[in-house]
Structure formats: structure tokens, C-alpha cells
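Ticket #4471: structure output looks truncated?

Reporter: J.K.
Steps to reproduce: submitted the chain below (143 residues) through the standard prediction queue, then opened the result file.
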Amino acid sequence: TKTVYENVAFAMEIVGESRRSIRRNVPIVLSVVGLRDKAQARPSELSGGEQQRVAIARAMINNPVLILADEPTGNLDPANSESIMALLNEINAAGTTVIICTHDRTLVDRMDKRGIEIRNGALVRDEQHGQYAVAELAYATHD
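Returned output as attached by the reporter:
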């Protein structure tokens, strides 16, 4: 099993980054996600929130223009959910587009960001300050 450092470095290795670049950039990204002190930890030694931060670090290490986050708070307690969303907001504020797929109504309502709904491959709703629609939630759960 890879350490936190090795897990994030792997994302750079597979795109051909140099060892020097990896040694320089991995600690920076681990600091950004609040895991620099956990660099040598293994996944089994991390909390759910910390594991999610590793996934975010791995996603952002190669400076993508877009991050797709599928249920990033799905298995987290409220405090860790809030922390992960704050981190994704920081990444977005720094210029990376972040698309989050979630069923967490309170998360959507609290974020006050553009919200879209896609049903059966078609865009059915697009709002600049999206709110999770109860009627659509009920509809989606009965599809």
C-alpha cells in the first residue's frame, strides 16, 4: 500500500514528470490540503476526511483545468464535509473549474453556486444560484 506521498506522487509519475518536480510539488500540494504531516501515513491510518483530501491532492497535483468530484462528502461527517467543500471552493477560487455531483441537499443549498440537473443525459435545469429542488428530488428517487 502506498503512503500519502507516494499516492499523490503517482499521479505525477504516470504523466512523465521528473523526480525533481515530484519532490518539489508533492509537499506543496500536501500542505494545501492540510496533509503535509501525514505524508508517510498509509490509507488505513487516515480518517475518511483525510482520505478524501488525498484524493483531492492527487486530482490537483498536475494543475488540471477541471476537477470532477463525485459525491466528495458522501461518507463524511458534517465537520469533514464542510472542510472538504471549503477546500474545493479554494481550488475553484484559484481558477480550477470544479464540478460536484451530489445528492446532499444541504450542501447544494449552502454553496449558492451554479446548479445544473441532468436527467437521462439531457440538461433539464440550469440556475446561477442553484437550490436543490424537493419536487425534483422526489421525482429522481422514483425514476
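Triage note (M.O.): checked the attachment and the full C-alpha cell line is present. The radius of gyration is 17 Å.
Status: closed, working as intended.
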